[in-house]
Amino acid sequence: MASTPSHADAAPEPPRPGLRRRLLLGLAAFVCRRALWIVAAALLLAGLSVWLSVTSLTFITDRNALVDPEAEFNKRFLRFNAAFGDQELMLLCITAAPGPVNNPDFDPPPPTARQRAEMKQAAAKAARALRARPELFPRVMERVDPESFGGTRMLYMPLKDLEGAVAQVEAAKPLIARVAQEPGLPGLLRGLRENIDQGSVSNLSGEQLDRAGAELASLIKSLRESLDPARPALAPDGLFAFNSSDPNLDPDGYFFTWEGRMLFVPLLPAKDHAALNQVKEPIAFARAALAEVQREHPGLSLGLTGRPAIYSDEMETSNRDMTNATILALLSVTILFALWFRGLVRPALGVLSLVLALCWTMGFTTLALGHLNIFAMVFGVVLIGLGIDFAIHVLNHYRHGLARGLSVREALYDCYAEIGAGTVTGAVTTAAALSTAMLTDFLGLAELGLICGVGILFCLLSMLVVLPAMLVLYDRRRLDEGDRNLREVMRARALDEALHPLPQRTTPLQLGAAAVMLAAILAGVVSVSWAATHGWTPFDYDLLSLNDPSSEAVHWEQLLVRHDQRASYAVSLRERPEEIRALHDRFLPLVEQGVIRGMETIVPEHESQSRALLARLDAALPASFAGQDQPSVARAVQSAARALQAGLRTLAGRGENFGRAFGQAADEAAAMVELCRQSPEGVTQRLAQMEPGFCGALRKALSDLKRDASPPPVTPQTLPEVMRNRYVGHLEDGRPLYALYIYPRKNMWDHENAREFNRLLLAIDPEATGVTIQIQESADIIVNGFVRSVLYAALVILALIALDLRRPLATLISLLPLIGGLAILGGVMVFSGLSFNFANFFAVPILIGTTVDAGVYLVHSQRHGDPVRTLRQTRGACVLCSLTTALGFGTMMIAHHRGVISLGAVLTVGTFASMLVAFFLVPVVLGWFNAHGKRV
């Protein structure tokens, strides 16, 4: 009777696999059974996602919409926008040729009177062309009509200019009184004589005397020439024109800046908030119109700038760059796949799996958010660079399984068993790292984190389920049958290696490479530490420097930054003009300190002093001005001119200075007398032609001056519409809200300048808002969110890896590619002068998520299966992962947008650095444990 084997003699049962491994093996079995259904469902879901995205997904390109609407600074800005409407203006700028585009040292001399007139002509032509398309440009403000101020325009004159105007009128009081009683050329000439007789120039000396004589000679000459039928009639505009001491002020109401060197026209473009580029059509039309004007005025240079134009150019450039980078990344990764795996079909299936995941991500974004913001648009390149890694590991181990003679089913089981756990951990850690951006206060960054985090999980799902299903369908003839002969050969080789193991030694070359990597890591840490204590700025806030350097709008903006800062402003809001006046006075010390360049509001700057001066002006002017009944005749003009000549001769005879100053004027009066004597009929006929219009215009000019000398109270109704729209808004209940615009003196693209400017303003008016505050506060939120997301990502990844590997030593080894890669990246950035910025700062969470994967894969490979073979296969897969990731990100370095280039540079350098650490350092560490028969 055969004996029953005792319990002690029974063969030991193999250890039961853990829950995660059992789930993965169950997934492998499910994929093999339902491969066709899985692929069909994946394709259907992708098609539905694409349809949903095309029909329902919108774009949010308004940067203000990405800021928390409950943030106090943003609530103030939204209140301002609600009351005043869109105040984000474009500027049409006109200067002398060649202009600032590709001329960084452009500094023309002040324009001549002729150049200034041509600039105004060009502005008027451009404004007419743009105003012809009100659906594209609802507001075009090339000038403020001086007649539209309702009698208040002189209140807005600089005090110095108004004082000069009053003195000029008071000195010409006899002349004006005569013209008021006796309109016509004879009355004007007699008034000039009476002015001389009453000693209006007696107290002048030196340059003042010479200037008065020259002006009088020029006036008499113009009057004489107007009597010549061959000459144009004299316009009275210049008779009582008051020259301003400020070359930026224009008598026709055009807007000049930079001491008259630049004329600018504010434009309000219509914005399509559903479009990726909100002002694409208005800018295209405007540039075409400006090109036409430019051809007519080759001596001038015309261009567009302002934040809408800059953002439009940036959107066009970055969108084109990212599209090209995404396409090039897909093509490059596909080619690299084909070369690495020595075939086309299986790599193409891996790329198809990635495309399916991208489609699902778009569908999720449409359902969860309904829109895509300008920050989240980079998710495609991010997922291509990171998501393809999972396909690499699956294809690499699957290929090696088939190479060992395994069937498709066995190769997939082996693949899931060896790298499934590491793949899941790597994907979860990457998704967690990217998703930590959701914890920040900046909505643009939070939405990017959500999309990328979910997208990574979709990539994991596609690579672990859909890709294996497609492999099953492609290799279905080998589903359950492998190559028996090859399997026997591989089994014999494995048995021989087990019976006669080779000593697992690290070669001197490997040790040397590991030492070099340690030295590079140490050098990176030291260089960053040294630079941080010697003024290195790790974050560059300057948004302007990130743009395409060939952008026309950027060149014009840089010119404004140096000379005007017109596009950057803060604004204080109050419900009463008196409060605005009080605020204006409180801000004046900042003007004296060089913080504020200027202020604009409905309230005149020196209203009380101006009204006092205008009272003097009113007293110097007659109460009324008579009209002319009949045109004058030559004899009357001749008589008045002879009297003026005599007075001038007497004046010139008072001394050498007077003779030099008024001799020319006396000669011009004599020439007028001679003209009337020689051609009395011609002069009389000419007077009949030109004098009625001349006298009517002169009477109107003096009447307007009299009207403006008694200005009514300043109200919204007295302002021109252009000013009223800008300075007076309305609350929801209809009450008026008044604005005080404050323009900085320093460059507001410099964050420290903006922060100091806003600090000083808010200390005076805590309720202030505006572009300067909005951008600086948003920038601080973004940077703080960036720092927090990095910290959160590091903590989450550390926790997940520790939970997965469960040993501190294994956790530390898995973090070597991350720590080493970031240290080397920091050193490269210090020595190259590269800083983090608003375009590339999200690279750090991406690097944290992707670089840690290699360490996790390598540790898992050392733990499971044949440590030497599996580690060697995994290291090769990690190298390919890094190459595809770096290639995907590196395609951004061909961009034109400097921000996109810097993003590609940071990601490429960081990925390569971590790859070198993973390839040369981590295997040496794990090899030591292999040599000693230990599993980490």
How is this structure best described in words?
Among the domains are: 72-143 and 263-312, Alpha-Beta Plaits; 153-246 and 602-717, no CATH class. The chain is 64% helix and 6% strand. It has 30 helices and 12 strands. Strands 2, 3, 4, 5 and 6 form a 5-stranded antiparallel β-sheet that branches. Strands 8, 9, 10, 11 and 12 form a 5-stranded antiparallel β-sheet that branches. Strands 1-7 form a two-stranded parallel sheet. A hairpin with a 5-residue loop joins strand 10 (728-730) and strand 11. Helix 13 packs across helix 25. The longest helix is centred in the middle third of the chain and has 35 residues, at 307-341. The two termini are 50 Å apart. The model is unreliable at 1-15 (pLDDT under 50).
